[in-house]
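Sample entry (180 residues):
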Amino acid sequence: MLWVSMGLLLGLATGLAVHVGLESRHSDESGFGLEELKLRATASHGSKTFAMATGAADENGEAVLMLDYLTGDLTCFVLNPRSAKFNAMFRTNIWKELPPEKGKEASYVMCTGSWSPLKGGANGARPADCVVYVADCNTGYFVAYSFPWQGGANANVGPPLNGAMVTLDFGKARDLKLRQ
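Predicted structure, serialized as tokens:
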């Protein structure tokens, strides 16, 4: 019984010390002293002939990227935070870098990642806050793409923006040939 009582007292004292420490560090409206934590989530999913992924254009804009395996078209749509409508579209064809192999069914995987590019692009546009990775499951080659984004300028309500996706880099993840 003595050990249980001591454990209970020690636990209460630790909890109180943590609470007092957080309160003295900084306090917000909630009274818990915890800073706001913003989460950014991305998602991706694919089927036999189509893949879809989401990513952040910037801190306010959400992008959805779609890859059609049958045509090689990679298309990005960005939702306008003011109008809740798609106001930007960027495209490329992945077959320039990842052509399908003759006699094999095209098979790709796609996902997005977040990044903070350090250098800007042309005309004051810098790459968006997300990068999309596409890999050819047959060859092991992969490519990273992004799109030019000007944040506030692109968020204005007006005519839709159209542009090209930008190829950032490419590589090969598989060094062996698969037999069938």
